Structures are given as structure tokens and as C-alpha cells.
Known about the structure:
The chain is mostly loops. It has one helix at about 25-35, and strands at about 60, 85, 200, 230, 255-259. The protein starts with about 25 loop residues before the first helix and ends with a strand.
Amino acid sequence: RNIPTNIDLSEASSGSRTFAGCYQLTMAQAKMIMDSTKNTGLYSGNMWRFFESCIGIKGQLPEDFFANAKALAGGNYFFTGCSEITGTLPPRLLQPCAASLKDTGYMFSGLNITGGIPEGFFDGMVNLSDAYHMFSSTKLNGVLPDKMFKDCRGLVNAYNMFSSCSSLTGQIPTDLFNYSPKLKTVANFFSGCSSLVGEIPDTIFNLTTGGTYDDLLYVDGLFNNCSNLRGSEFPSYLFEFTPNILLVDYLFNGIPNLS
């Protein structure tokens, strides 16, 4: 009934759904599994849905949970269905694998985590390309920091990243996407974030390096139903540097105070 204390999966080349559906697995056991596995082999492969639906993993994620995961590339759907994970995001949770991470899609989606995104949480993630639905449908109720994506130069797919985070508050950082020239989609990025306040900044697509977002195609639903956003002046320069946008459906839908 217990996980062996000497488990070592470091020579495995893939770890998809390795412990998915292990309902009795606890946070302490999950941490032990991560601690006892070396930073090669499995961690440089795919850990897709690794702890999926492990509802026995409860409480606050330890800041050193990924301490040995220094080569982790794919953490997509890692905690999908682990609805009993609560608390806040530790600021350095993903720092051990920051340089190797490429896919964090749905990684924390649906968890009962609160607070905001800590300053520096994405630092060093120079190879991150996919962050779709990373925090969607969580209980996040804090704010987003400035320069959040300052190292995410390779970010491509960020659709629905905070969709349905209805308690996420504060103002939209004015430099939100300024560091990510390869963006292809931010569709529904804030869809349903009805507690965001303030004006929509028209500087979120101003590259710090200059130039245009030639690959950006999809901004549909970006601010959909962000009902507490307002605007004394329409963000007329919002898409000045995005020449190839294809879809703008539901872009400002449900924002009654936009003028």
C-alpha cells in the first residue's frame, strides 16, 4: 500500500500518467517521489498528467517540490484533477527547472490555489513556449506583477492562461507581453476575469526590442467578460504593432464601462 522509499525513476524516458488516478497518494509521498528521482532521464522527457486526479495530494505545495527536476521540459497537465491542492504559489516553485521548461499547459488548472502570481515566478524560463490554460479556473485572488514574462522570449501559445479566474484582481500590467516577440495566440487569456480593475493599457504589445509581433494571429476573447475593466479612452493603439491578427471575436465582449 505504500510507495517504496527507494523509488528511482531517473532512467525512464517518459512519465505520462505514471501515478494518475492514485487517489490515496499524499502530498508527502508525492514529494518523496520527486525527491528520490535524479534530474536525468524521466525529467528530461514527458511528465504529462504525472499526478492526474490524485485527490489525496492536499494542502500547500512545498517550494522545493521540483528541487530535483532540473531538466524537466514538459509539465503539462501535471496536477490536473488534484483539486485538494490549496494555498499560494511558492515564488521559487519552478525555478529549479526554469531553463528547461517548454510546456506548462494546464499545469495548475483547476487547483484551489489562492493569492497572485509571485514576482519572479517565471524568471529564467527562456525556453517556455506553451503556457495555455496554465492557471485557468483556479481561485487566484491576488495580482499579476510587472515584468512577469521578462525572460519568456520564446512564449508562443498563451491562450486561456487565466481564463475563468474570476477572483484575480488588480490591474493588467502595462508591459504584459512586451518581452515575447514569438507570440502566436493569447486568445481568451483573461476571459472571465471579472475582478480585474482599471483601464486596458494600450502598451501591452510594445516589444522592448522594437519591431512588430509578426506571428501573433489570435487575440479573440482576450478581455471577454472582464466586466470591471473600464476605459476613459478606448485603447486605440493596442494593436499598433500586431499587423497579422486574424481573430478578434469577443475581444471586448461584456465590458460595459469601455468608452
